[in-house]
Specification:
The radius of gyration is 23 Å and the shape is elongated. The protein has two domains: 58 residues; 217 residues, Naphthalene 1,2-dioxygenase Alpha Subunit, Chain A, domain 1. The C terminus is likely disordered. A hairpin with a 4-residue loop joins strand 4 and strand 5. With 346 residues, it is α+β, with helices and mostly antiparallel strands. The longest helix is centred in the first third of the chain and has 36 residues. A seven-stranded antiparallel β-sheet has the order 1-7-6-5-4-3-2, with helices on both faces. Helix 2 packs antiparallel against helix 3 and helix 2 packs across helix 8.
Amino acid sequence: MDNDTATEFRESRSRSKLFEDPFQDNDAATVSAPEKPDPDTAVQFFIAQLKQGIWWLGIPSWLFGMTDRGFAAFADGYLSASELFTVLVTSFLFVSWLSLKPGFDAEVPSDSALAPTDKPFSFQPNVAHLEATQARMAELNSYHLISQSYSLPYPYVCQIYHLLNLKHLETIHSFSLNNLKVVKVSSLEQTEQGGMITFQTVLDSPWNILRIWRRSMAEVQLTLHSPYTVELGIPVYGDKMIIVLFNAIPLSHTDHEFRVDIYSNLPWYKPVLQAVLHFATLLTLIEDLPYLKALAQTNVQRLFGQGKSLNPDMMWLFRRFVHLYGSTWSGSTKRVLPAATEDSLP
């Protein structure tokens, strides 16, 4: 992929309109809220994807084991009976693993029923925001690898606060990112509908698994395309990219639809790459849930407080969100919002 294509791959095409309250009738939003997904179906979807991810991850593990045993057996130029038995047993177990590919029970919806759909996107109250999201997804469509979608029982603003807070890369996701550190913020750029922040990250540990994707130090971009869409751009080896598109869509004052789409131009074997990304996405979601629950149990509207934090750059993109859209949300609650600092929140 040449530089022009890589630049185009990173570019956002979002266009801006004023944010309108998704829970009030208005001319820009004539669609009704989608039916709330069945919690049992969401759990089944989660379990089905987890099984699929584990199965896919098992394939390279078994291949490595077979290769290792094969080289060990023929290393001395002589194949003993015990070595032949070991190779045959390993091969048999590998074939057995392939035959155990997870399926779906009759009571569980089919793959097409479980797959994320675009139905929640129709609930975006502003047509311009919906079109901007769909345009960006269409632009990246040829690089699409996986989608995961969940109905979460937490206010939409909790998810937005979490996505736009750089500090959470070091705290909430310290396990999955293996203690990745945000070194400094390199640049801040305002757009009509949001903004973009570029920041340097470093992998301290020589055993950090993320080293298979990227260099030890790399600049990452976080972009707010609209009140509902956040993009994370991660550079990897060979001028390749992994782009994660998050869509948080309010279904009510207490629930939201959370969709994750991952795109990449990495030349990896696609099924293996998809399995790794599915597993990684599930792991980060599991890390998110306790924090989102704790955040939802506080006064959610405190998130719109204008207090200063210890590191304003870490919260710059969320403050940009508050500047553009916070007054509409606070107005819809008919409550006075107390000022809050980052450290006073969970």
